[in-house]
Amino acid sequence: MGHAENGELYHDKMIGMLERLWGDGWLSPGGPDEVRRLLDGMDLQGKSILDIGCGAGGIDVLLAQEFNARYVCGIDVEDTVLANARARAEKAGCADKIGVVKVVPGPLPFPPGTFDIVFSKDSIVHIPDKHTLMRDVFRVLKPGGWFVASDWLIGHDNEPSQQMKDYIASEGLDFGMASPGKYKDALEKAGFRNVTVTSRNAWYRERARQELETLSGPLYAEAVAALGQDFVDHNITIWQNMIPVLDSGEHCPTHLRGFKPKS
Fold this sequence. Notes:
Blueprint: H1 12-22, H2 31-38, E1 48-52, H3 58-65, E2 71-76, H4 79-91, E3 98-102, E4 115-121, H5 130-140, E5 141-154, H6 162-171, H7 180-190, E6 193-199, H8 201-216, H9 220-227, H10 229-247, E7 251-259
Helix pairs in contact: 5-7, 6-10, 8-10, 9-10
């Protein structure tokens, strides 16, 4: 989603851009509604939650306030998003239920059996080795706990098409995309049961078109004034590159779940 600034992919301009599309504190598509859909049927009341890639904190506030989680620990790798997340938790009056921590890529810095739920929204795409990550997620979950995530997947295990390469190149992000089969294998080999992999491609195919229309039309002048024309135009190009690979099914946003057995 554009160019790094000061070594950060999600700098203030990028956050400003994505929040204009998805709402304050939201750096991934669908805002609160998509998180509600992702967590459908899960009871988070009184639970401790790890949010991998917490971004600007909108999700953590939702988990604490609406879902009544006992405690949410958000982790991310960049200072700007974490500063945003801290300020958002403070402003929402739930800083006592939300802690955000800077981590380095690698093993999760928590003891075994720390969390009831490990959650992630469109962040694991930045972590290339899904098998190692799922073993680590399994480790930090309590027995009887759940991994619940959405992520950006590629529809196959082959060489990406030229269209897909163009899209990933225009994003400028460190995408480590894997297929639904690879995620399922990683979850099952880690020990998860009741694994589900649910495509959200049909939903996002439509939503991405709306986002592009909004960005090119009603939002354009205000976004250019705030963020600069080059930056906004570059993001429009990203969306234009993304829609063909959504249409072909090669880019498939997906919901993932797995249960850690009690014994």
